[in-house]
What we know:
Blueprint: E1 21-23, E2 28-34, E3 49-50, E4 56-60, E5 70-74, E6 80-85, E7 98-99, E8 105-109, E9 119-123, E10 129-134, E11 151-153, E12 159-163, E13 173-177, E14 183-188, E15 206-207, E16 213-217, E17 227-231, E18 237-242, E19 256-257, E20 263-267, E21 277-281, E22 287-292, E23 310-311, E24 317-321, E25 331-335, E26 341-346, E27 360-361, E28 367-371, E29 388-393
Parallel strand pairs: 1-26
Antiparallel strand pairs: 2-29, 3-4, 4-5, 5-6, 7-8, 8-9, 9-10, 11-12, 12-13, 13-14, 15-16, 16-17, 17-18, 19-20, 20-21, 21-22, 23-24, 24-25, 25-26, 27-28, 28-29
Amino acid sequence: MENSRGLKNICAIILFCAATATAASAQTFTxxxxxxxxxxxxxxxxxxxxxxxxxxYGTTIIGGASGTGTIFDITTTGVLxxxxxxxxxxxxxxxxxxxxxDGNFYGTTSGGSVFGxxxxxxxxxxxxLxxxxxxxxxxxxxxxxxxxxxxxxGASGDLYGTTTTGGAHGAGTVFKITTTGKLxxxxxxxAQxxxxxxxxxxxxLTRASNGKFxxxxxxxxxNGWGTVFSITITxxLxxxxxxASTDGASPFGxxxxxxxxxxYGTTxxxxxxxxxxxxxxxxxxKLATIYNFCAKAYCPDGKAPFGTLIQGSNGDLYGTTDGGGxxxxxxxxxxxxxGVLxxxxxxGGTDGSFPYAGLxxxxxxxxxxxxxxxxxxxxxxxxxxxxxxxxxxx
Length: 394
């Protein structure tokens, strides 16, 4: 059932199209830290989150004391501390953390624990991890398995998330979980013929101003290339758009609701050049492509965006591409809501390679993010760096 072309590591460009791309003026880019296996390795889809202390918090999918992933914090000056190494309490924390209204962090692992299908957990600022739920604890994994999209907190204080497997049809679920660990399955994907409702959600849901949650599936839909959907807090799911490849395909990132009320997102594939798009959509579901990546040879503007966009304090949107740029290792970009894109940074290896995750902006306007590999230290499996944490002042 896999229609996604997978995780692509390649090229990008400075582009003129229906939407325009420009080169950036001087940016202040700083590589804050390089992972070294012992303190973690390969931060993946999860964006960093700013804690109440001003530090940045995140996860790596492997590395640490047991080799199965870590939770870390890093100061804005680059002092990195491993706060937790996963072991029997779960492994492969693909997604990042969310800071709850109670001051604790919440997240998921996509593997390990009692049934080997991942967990939902709470992590206190003091460093104590509590497993709230072990997935696949119900018959035939009807409660879902392998959550990869992370969590988002609703107005009630409950947390909402998705799983990529399990559920009534084996294609994943949308669930609600309380901060004390009571889980309710709200929806099971592939409930419609030929999975017209989509399946496989890789990023956290977004709570919109109308009270609904919005998300994207990387597969399924009417054309098999993924969907955008909304779901109510009681579990009524509506497929708003099915991608057709020409307008984008395989959205791995989630959505962000901008100040204009529209939802913005990316696809990792499809579009005019087949290398991904940026799109906007109203809450009711009308989609418009505002940018097509890789309109020129070798993609200097980037290709294959996987992370979720953020809206900066200036109203523009910021994101990353996994491929492209001047050295074929990914980019950081800024794009207006009208579709004018500026490449802010092209990664080159020692400063990081292949940023899968999105960005976060602090109160001073500085952007922070991670790369999956690259950096100054060699890793066992890749012969290249284990990943980095970086900052950029746009």
